[in-house]
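Risk register update: the risk of archive-format incompatibility is retired. Evidence:
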Amino acid sequence: MRTVFFDVDTQIDFLYPAGALYVPGGETIVDRVAALNRYAAAHGIVVVSDMDAHAEDDPEFKTWPPHCVVETAGQQKPAATLLDKRVVVPNAPCEVKLESVEQVLLEKQTLDCFTNVNLPNLLERLAAERYVVYGVVTEICVKCAAWGLLKTGKRVELVTDAVRSLDESAAKQMMAEFTAAGGVLTTVAEVTGV
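Archived output:
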């Protein structure tokens, strides 16, 4: 079954206490995200890592404090979560070369990765039958990715021990709605077999 992993917003500003928009416990999933990404690379699975890529005066900052401003340390992914063969896909029409690529860094300026104009074509080219989703924040950006992927009609799995939330009750509700819509809950061990 052709699989694609979705690594959602695992960026320094979200994952570490010094980050501009820290998700409590975010640092505890870095090793799990890294393990999932390395597993994918070892098994020929492409990882789509969506990433906030904000301008200094981004409209989103009317709702959320400034975070993940392009070319700041906080916008970067932890080194352990990066794969060697990667390509950056901006949120502007472009030709994406996927030959030999292990990781696609998909830039976005809103909560929903599906606002990147290149994502529909990218998904079509990757032709996955199964998506494995993890990252932050469970009830916000992870939810957007999971719901968008469910709309493809393909199998979508959420790795419950590789996500973190800001609101635990909202995260539980999201997971209940996700499974009711056909999504599958899984763990790092179940995905990797380790």
